Automatic annotation (TrEMBL):
It comes from the Bacteria. Gene3D superfamilies: Winged helix-like DNA-binding domain superfamily/Winged helix DNA-binding domain. Transmembrane segments: none annotated. This is MarR family winged helix-turn-helix transcriptional regulator. It comes from Pseudomonas machongensis. InterPro entries: HTH_MarR-typ, MarR/SlyA-like, WH-like_DNA-bd_sf, WH_DNA-bd_sf. Residues 8-139 form the HTH marR-type domain. It holds the Pfam family MarR_2.
Length: 152
């Protein structure tokens, strides 16, 4: 590890600033079809993962369950998601509706435009390096032992 490199400023603040900028970028593209980036991501996860319990969905999205519940409410109100009884009396299942699949498909075009625009602005090499770095950071934060093993 190179100890001569010293980060300047607060890592959390810098990451939050960057994520807010990127979120605004995607939200601007998705606003034309009446979605926010978080809503598009939620529809995409439910479509990909199939009917699943809210807790499983929150875990898959790295999201607090209360935040997931708050974010799902407008999607349920629009008829894009349903929450029904799960496998037992105490569980529930989140499922995407036909209208939700259509809205997600409409959103995928806006999302792709946002993705392409961001890649044009930052450059494919920088985006690729950012993905590698973010994936490594998330792996390490999810499993601190992985960092120790990787560096051996």
């Amino acid at each position: 590890m190179n100890t001569s490199i010293k980060p300047s400023g607060c890592t959390n603040l810098k990451l939050r600033q960057l994520t807010r900028m990127v979120t605004r970028h995607y939200d601007q593209h998705l606003a034309a079809i009446g979605l926010k980036n978080t809503q598009y991501a939620l529809l995409s996860h439910v479509l990909r993962l199939g009917p699943l319990r809210p807790g499983e969905l929150a875990k898959a999205m790295q999201m607090e369950p209360s935040t997931l519940t708050r974010n799902m409410q407008p999607l349920v109100a629009q008829g894009w998601l349903t929450i029904s009884a799960g496998g037992d009396a105490r569980s529930r299942a989140v499922q995407i509706t036909e209208a939700g699949i259509e809205k997600r498909e409409e959103g995928s075009q806006a999302w792709q435009a946002a993705q392409d625009s961001l890649q044009d602005a930052l450059g494919l090499e920088r985006i690729s390096a950012l993905h590698v770095l973010m994936d490594a950071c998330m792996t390490t934060l999810n499993d601190p032992e992985a960092e120790a093993t990787d560096s051996l």
